[in-house]
Amino acid sequence: SWAQAVEDRTRTLGEGLKFGAGPDDLRNYYRLWGEVLAAHDAGRRPDPQVIRTLGQLAKRVDPKHEPRDP
Q1: Per-residue pLDDT tens for 2-26?
Q2: Which long-range CB contacts under 8 A does 7-15 form with residues at least 24 apart?
Q3: Is residue 57 a contact partner of residue 29, using CB atoms and an 8 Å limit?
Q4: What CA–CA distances, in Å, run from 38 to 22, 58, 65?
Q5: Who has greater pLDDT, 14 or 30?
Q6: What is the C-alpha separation between 33 and 53, in angstroms, rounded?
Q7: How far apart are CA 37 and CA 43, in angstroms?
Q8: Cα–Cα distance between 55 and 41 in angstroms, integer?
Q9: In angstroms, what CA-CA distances link 39 with 13, 35, 42, 45, 53?
């Protein structure tokens, strides 16, 4: 789940992401994922710009990231 991913990353980095700490790119990555999940839960398609930005951020926050179509 999204919340578990934030918790795991917080433990890995030793920084409190859920408390607003950590690198800007990583905080934005999880914030935008939250927007995507909220849109999905509401039965809406996520904003295409959000998806593009997530792809760009993923390359910076996870060097092993392999892009996939949403």
Answers
A1: 678 778 777 777 777 777 888 888 8
A2: none
A3: yes
A4: 23, 19, 23
A5: 30
A6: 10
A7: 10
A8: 21
A9: 28, 6, 5, 6, 16
